[in-house]
Design a protein that fits this description.
The protein has one domain. Helix 2 runs antiparallel to helix 4, helix 2 packs across helix 13 and helix 4 crosses helix 9. It starts with a helix and ends in an 18-residue tail after the last helix. 69% of the residues lie in helices and 0% in strands. It has 15 helices and no strands. By secondary structure, it is mainly α. It is globular, with a radius of gyration of 21 Å.
Length: 377
């Protein structure tokens, strides 16, 4: 019965998730290209409002985490009883993550954009440990990659050990415990780290995705139930935001926001993920949206390189003596178009002519699965 119900919800090529990756990386690039690095002192209201609206782009990383929790948990569940379980998972992750990551660290170091210490911290995947260890922030995107790698290190052992039911209970416990830990860290009783970056304080992002992976492989994982769950998650997110908005849930500078800011967004991203599973093929048939799929395909490289390219653009403008973007919205748009386009081109070249060579080696470390696992992870 479960196999019949799941037919159509899970498939080897879940194209809708590629579009979600595209959306996630676009909003992150918008955030870094405008709000994160551009003054908001533009003369017109629309210009100021546009830049301020891109502040929500930081949530793109949370969407990546939910997707990662879903995909990785699914792959692990599908292969957990295979003898090559650990070898297959870790070798395929190494081939996917490490080549571009090592190259980016080399570029940062030899361009004097990053110090040897920061590179060492990044290579140890400790870039999200500021406030816990005596390390500096380093290159911006690396904190989330540290979260991912720490997740990869621990999660396969948990999935291997627990039954589907106990994994469900464990993931639910993570979702309820994490806000409490964030609140404790906010009051520094005890100081557990950055409530935005420490893996043990934001693991509910990943746990939401894990719960959806379990649901999709259960006897309840039908298309009809997926639609109902998406509606329930969306409604819960809307109610939570509406009820707690007056109390500062959008700002983690207060106790409520520190503890619960990401929770409604995680619920909403879970709903979006389910919709992508339900309507992925329809989305893929819409021509105007196809660039999002391309961006989703190169999202990893684009995420790695874009902040460096924006910084290089600013440095070039400064050296040439050209006016910066301060107070000039058209120049801000020009900066985003040039640096953003360059980032996309570089990420595409990297994926096509560098990363793909390593990705092709993944076929030698493929664990046979009881059910088709997503190949796009």
């Amino acid at each position: 019965m479960g196999a019949e119900q799941n037919r159509g919800l899970l498939s080897r090529h879940m194209h809708g998730l590629d579009y979600l990756r595209g959306i996630a990386v676009v909003v992150v690039v918008l955030y870094h290209g405008f709000y994160w690095s551009t003054p908001t002192n533009f003369p017109r209201y629309f210009e100021r409002a546009f830049v301020k609206a891109t502040v929500f782009g930081w949530l793109g990383v949370n969407l990546f985490f939910v997707l990662s929790g879903f995909l990785i948990t699914g792959i692990l569940m599908d292969t957990k009883h295979k003898p090559e379980y650990f070898t297959s998972f870790y070798m395929r992750r190494i081939l996917r993550i490490l080549p571009a990551y090592l190259l980016m660290n080399a570029v940062l170091y030899f361009s004097h954009f990053s110090t040897a210490t920061n590179v060492a911290v990044s290579l140890l995947y400790l870039a999200n440990m500021k406030g816990v260890l005596p390390v500096s922030a380093g290159y911006g995107p690396f904190w989330s990659l540290s979260v991912e790698e720490q997740f990869y290190f621990v999660w396969p052992w948990i999935v291997r050990k627990l039954s589907s039911r106990n994994l469900t209970y464990f993931s639910l416990a993570v979702c309820f415990v994490e806000p409490v830990l964030r609140l404790m860290s906010f009051y520094r009783r005890p100081p557990l780290g950055d409530v935005h970056e420490a893996t043990w304080l934001i693991a509910d992002n990943l746990a939401i995705g894990a719960l959806l992976a379990i649901f999709a492989r259960s006897n309840f994982g039908s298309k009809r139930n997926a639609g109902r769950l998406a509606m329930a998650l969306s409604l819960a997110a809307i109610v939570m935001l509406g009820a707690l908005l007056p109390f500062g849930i959008l700002h983690r500078t207060n106790p409520l926001g520190a503890a619960l800011q990401v929770v409604p967004w995680n619920l909403f991203f879970g709903a979006i993920l389910l919709c992508a599973l339900l309507w992925g093929e329809r989305i893929a048939s819409i021509r105007v949206l196809r660039p999002l799929r391309v961006l989703g395909d190169i999202s990893y490289g684009l995420y790695l390189v874009h902040l460096f390219i924006f910084a290089q653009y600013d440095l070039a403008v400064q050296r040439l003596g050209w006016p910066g973007v301060d107070g000039n919205f058209p120049r801000s748009l020009l900066r985003f178009f040039i640096a953003g386009s360059a980032s996309v081109i570089i990420a595409w070249i990297s994926r096509r002519y560098y990363e793909q060579w390593f990705l092709d080696l993944k076929k030698y470390f493929k664990a046979s699965a009881k059910k088709a696992a997503p190949v796009s992870a």
